[in-house]
Design a protein that fits this description.
heterodimer; A: 134 residues; alpha/beta; Rossmann fold; five-stranded parallel beta sheet; 5 helices; 5 strands; globular; B: 586 residues; TIM Barrel; 2 domains; 24 helices
């Protein structure tokens, strides 16, 4: 069964670099997903919006070094609001190599660096949503 | 801009038409060359090759400027040495702004530095100076750039990340501890007009407390509306008109009070790296410069009192000859704009002075050591184009802020070019090349045409407010991304010559720990120990000045002296100017 994926995308915290996440937003829309773009927000605001908008997927971008602190906080908020178990959480950006594993351990379903291609990102998003949907 | 007012292109065209030219190549020689060239192309190439004579290099951040297979005098038949080039240091300054260029004054080696606390960054700056850096270039962390204090909820998790945390004059003091500010020039990368109006007064107040005369301070601030309103992704924005006014307030104050300080760095770099061509980068910066000068003239200033301290900041990326040519093209164009549009008299006003940073977007994670070569080529183009100062991006920046080792290698890249290669011994060494001169002329036209488009739409501030520039950027970088995915723009080890062998890991910088907690403690102590009555009075006076359309800098300077924090001043701006919803990029 194919569902139209509803995705919430934006910048984690006040990082200024938004070229990557806008590129991903376009990719998702071209792949038939519904995209809600929130701009810049803090973890609690993002989790709250995800709950209100009842999205299937949350994708955040961080190129400013705050991926571990704010990324971990986002997952904690998502667990607290009980949306983590049925919502896919993706993070992309510029990270030191060892942090990819740490972000996965923190709970992100997918972690993407600039090396990731369009097909990898979209395939992962679709598979993860299907796997995590109740 | 009123409907009757002529655009820059119209003004320049009427001037150029009047000017008499003295072509270097005589008609008889050109005729012979033309006949010979025609028979040569017929003999040496088949019809298919002749049709494919022009090719367009597809490069990261390129401008799609078509190139011939080879260039000859026929490519620039009316080339006039004096009108098009002149000697170095002579109008139209195509060959450089100084007669002796790098023999007289080497380009300043100014590596961008900033991470952790003021003390952390101070240590790295001392390290770079100890190893031969000739200028400083300070980058702030995201909360500082976005104007939140380190203990603001918006700052959580980002204090000291990708730049240095500065909340008040106390941090500014620690940042420049033991640095001789009367001898070393400092580029303070404030980014926005709003935070320039907050952070530069902190710098000035700190210099005052050290007893330094403002006359001896040398350096630059960024102070650029493009950065605040067009490129930035942030949570809260003031309206473009207010932002542009702050940009002009900063310039006005600095010109009057700090004579050797560059009052604005018209930003091409971040715009280009966000996603525009080499041509748009320069057109937007020129449009901003023109709007700025018009505003300051309207405020009653003489153009020559202001223009001599405007500087430009360019990204230099992969298309090697295009980068060299457009630096020369922009110098020539800027000279014409200042001379014919603004009737500037002072030589300095006619100079397009610039700082170049090599392209960060052009660096990739795959096989990161390849980035050393890319940055070196970018540096070479910047120097052959005649830049005044340079930052070389480090090979590890596709992962994090550079390590000390990588930052040193960037400085060494500059030193090797300066000391070992002989490249800087001759001024404008590529001047007179048929190819480079044709390309320089072509790029000058293209930049002027893009500037004309912005002016036709109502000028710089209008183009930002109505979202047309925002859309242009997104279109450009979406297309670049697709072209890289499809392999039309080639990147070695990414989409061509890829390898299955994993290169050995490189050292990647880790941020110092505990910076946020330390900043919170410092802020608590500051708020405890300062004269609260003085603080509130200074903030109140600033707010009133914002409402009165009076230059706000004397008031933000008093705020800095009173130990107000950055976030407190930003709160005043938000209250006084209101908030703006920027055009959606997506």
């Amino acid at each position: 069964m194919t569902i139209k994926i509803r995705a919430l995308l934006g910048k984690l915290g006040i990082d200024v670099h938004n070229r990557g996440i806008i590129t991903v937003a376009e990719m998702f829309r071209n792949a038939g997903m519904e995209v809600i773009y929130f701009g810049n927000a803090l973890p609690a605001q993002i989790a709250q919006t995800a709950l209100q908008e009842d999205v299937d997927l949350v994708g955040v971008s961080s190129l400013g070094g705050a991926h571990l602190t704010l990324g971990t906080a986002l997952i904690q908020e998502a667990r607290r609001l009980e949306i983590f178990d049925h919502t896919v959480f993706l993070i992309g950006g510029v990270f030191p190599p060892q942090d990819t594993l740490r972000l996965k351990e923190a709970g992100f379903d997918g972690v993407f660096t600039p090396e990731a291609t369009r097909s990898e990102i979209i395939a992962a998003a679709q598979e993860l949503v299907h796997a995590k949907k109740p | 801009m009123s409907a009757k007012q002529r655009t820059t292109r119209e003004i320049l065209q009427s001037q150029t038409l009047q000017a008499e030219r003295t072509p270097l190549y005589n008609p008889e020689a050109l005729e012979k060359i033309r006949a010979d060239f025609k028979s040569w192309t017929q003999e040496a190439f088949n019809a298919h090759a002749r049709e494919a004579w022009q090719q367009t290099p597809r490069t990261v951040l390129g401008s799609d400027t078509p190139r011939d297979l080879v260039y000859t005098p026929l490519s620039c038949p009316d080339f006039d040495y004096q009108k098009d080039l002149g000697n170095p240091g002579q109008e139209p300054y195509t060959r450089g702004i100084h007669p002796d260029m790098y023999r007289g004054r080497k380009f300043t080696m100014r590596q961008l530095t900033g991470f952790g606390s003021a003390e952390d960054t101070n240590r790295r700056m001392q390290f770079m100076l100890d190893h031969g850096a000739t200028g400083l270039n300070v980058l702030f962390d995201l909360p500082t750039i976005q104007m939140y204090d380190s203990d603001d909820p918006w700052a959580a998790g980002q204090v000291g990340m990708s730049g240095v945390a500065v909340d008040s004059i106390e941090d500014m003091d620690a940042l420049f501890k033991d640095i001789p500010l009367d001898r070393v020039s400092v580029s303070i990368v404030t980014h926005y007009p709003s935070n320039t109006a907050i952070l530069f007064p902190m710098f000035l107040a700190m210099a005052e407390e050290r007893g330094l005369s403002r006359d001896h301070l040398r350096g630059s601030v960024q102070n650029d509306t493009t950065l605040e309103q067009l490129i930035r992704s942030g949570a809260e924005y003031i309206p473009p008109e207010a932002c542009f006014r702050l940009q002009c307030d900063n310039i006005e104050f600095i010109r009057q009070q700090v004579p050797k300080w560059n009052s604005t760095t018209l930003n091409g770099y971040n715009l280009r790296e966000f996603g525009t061509s080499a041509v748009t980068e320069m057109a937007v910066a020129a449009a901003n410069a023109i709007a700025t000068l018009e505003e300051l003239i309207a405020r009653g200033h003489d153009v020559d009192a202001v223009a001599g301290r405007l500087t430009f900041f360019w990204s230099v990326s992969n298309d090697f000859f295009e980068e060299i040519a457009r630096l020369r093209a922009m110098r020539r164009l800027w000279h014409k704009i200042m001379k014919y549009r603004f009737q500037a008299k002072n030589k300095r006003s006619l100079w397009m002075r610039c700082h170049v940073q090599t392209s960060g977007v052009a660096l990739v994670q795959q096989e990161p050591l390849n980035n050393v070569i890319r940055s070196c080529l970018h540096s070479l183009a910047a120097i052959l184009g005649g830049t005044q100062s340079l930052h070389v991006d480090s090979y590890d920046e596709a992962y994090s802020v550079p390590t000390e080792e990588a930052a040193l290698l960037s400085l060494r890249t500059q030193q090797i070019i300066q000391e070992e290669s002989g490249i800087t011994d001759v001024v404008d060494p590529l001047g007179g090349s048929f190819y480079l001169e044709a390309l320089t002329a072509d790029l000058e036209d293209r930049i002027l045409n893009e500037l004309d488009k912005i002016e036709q739409r109502g000028g710089y501030v209008q183009a930002i407010g109505d979202g047309s520039l925002h859309r242009e950027i997104v279109d450009y970088f979406s297309k670049q991304h697709a072209d890289i995915e499809q392999g039309e723009i080639k990147i070695v080890a990414v989409n061509t010559h890829t390898s299955q062998v994993k290169p050995p890991p490189i050292n990647v910088f880790s941020y110092p720990e505990g910076v946020e907690a330390r900043q919170r403690t410092k802020l608590a102590e500051l708020r405890q120990n300062r004269d609260e009555r003085r603080v509130q009075a200074a903030l109140q006076n600033l707010k009133q000045a914002c409402g009165r359309s009076e230059n706000i800098l004397p008031f933000s300077l008093e705020c800095a002296r009173s130990r107000c924090t950055e976030g407190e001043l930003f709160a005043v701006f938000k209250e006084a100017f209101g908030l703006w919803n920027p055009p959606a990029l997506w």
